[in-house]
């Protein structure tokens, strides 16, 4: 039996890597991540599944979850540890490239000190900079085996483990927390010692660990992004915990009803729709995914995700106040918040009794990272679990008050110093742009600027978007080297020659206007004969008016410009100004030779 007042394990979730170096001849890697406590032996370190041919891998956070024992001492059965009084120094992460038929190549390492791991139900998501080797003592076998030590370090001479002396190895994003939620389960089963390793919802349930209940009430949405052509959406919300099994994310029982044609929905007549989940150890947050229901056989469109940390719910299990949480396309990360990609807001309530002991706030501080060092011992009292949702607040139905929208008008005036795949000062190219406001789902495509030079004035064209409190950034993406797919003038000449004049493009509106302006009797007679002749021909316009337009294939993305609009006031205008075009390419993208390298100028518009 162990001391029930001190966490014995740490939860670890591997999220993603970015900017890894390519270790294969293809220029990419097949990365996986190894996780363990500082000084853990081989059988106490655990791996994610490898990702194929990428430098920016990401893992399913429902699956890449591990339970690491604080006691890193050797164990014959690979069990949970936690009872030997061994100091917990922290966590060690190693990123490798998976090679079939040979040993994996080390891509970089990182560590988190024990003092930085949060407790009392709080989690930390952090991005770690990968280094060329681990500190002394991080890998147990490396202290006595030079071969193992070499495996966990990059050779500065350019051997199999590395290619040069570069220190830019990329980043690793993980989430960690002390496993306080195991304390309640271990008190009820004092002889149970959870095993280290993969620790998903199904694994926790298979161990028979005690679960608690989490109640979530989805009340309303505010200023949601529009997804349909009518400028509105048909939103519904899918609710789950971050460690819920995959079936929970696909179940229709965990989603609200669809609110039709609105950007400010209210569910349950203002009282909300309530969902209840089993909280297995390892859960850290409620995840709310917003979708647009397109109906029929069409697949619903994902709009954004919002989260509510469970530690923010009242510890006694009562309802929280109405929480307004923001939606982001890739989760509420700091990066997304700074790039102005808010997709709207949800109003929710959460009730979740804390699995930590009641005296967690008053417990005397222990020596950081030492298992079983809490003085006093004794039984800890836990908050009761509420199997049914608490009574609803007495405030009555929720009234959704929103701010009316204004509009943002935007125009591209021209470009200069735009890179083109052709060489020479007089060479022309075909260019277009897309314009989007972060809070609106509609993307405006400008007309193609055909056969223009790298310095060009664009045809006047104004884009308009509804602006709400979430509107912060207009993003303009410029595409070059567009290939012409259909030219009506060329096709008309070719078809007329092949069919001996039977098939014609037909009379355009400009031709008709020109005929009306002819005043002489001879000209009018000639125009009448020409018109009669054209009526006898097979008019190609019968196939649709688009045949009278030029059509282009979408070209190569040159770069983008982000323009802040949050500070604009109604009626305010800005003078035309030149803005640099920044590249938007990941390490996995193939860059055309005619585009300048990252960091160089991409032109301006």
From TrEMBL:
It holds the Pfam family C2. SUPFAM superfamilies: C2 domain (Calcium/lipid-binding domain, CaLB) (SSF49562). Residues 507-517 have a biased composition (Basic and acidic residues). Residues 1-128, 195-323 form the C2 domain. Residues 353-397, 507-535, 568-605 are annotated as: Disordered. GO terms for molecular function: calcium ion binding. This is C2 domain-containing protein. It comes from Micromonas pusilla.
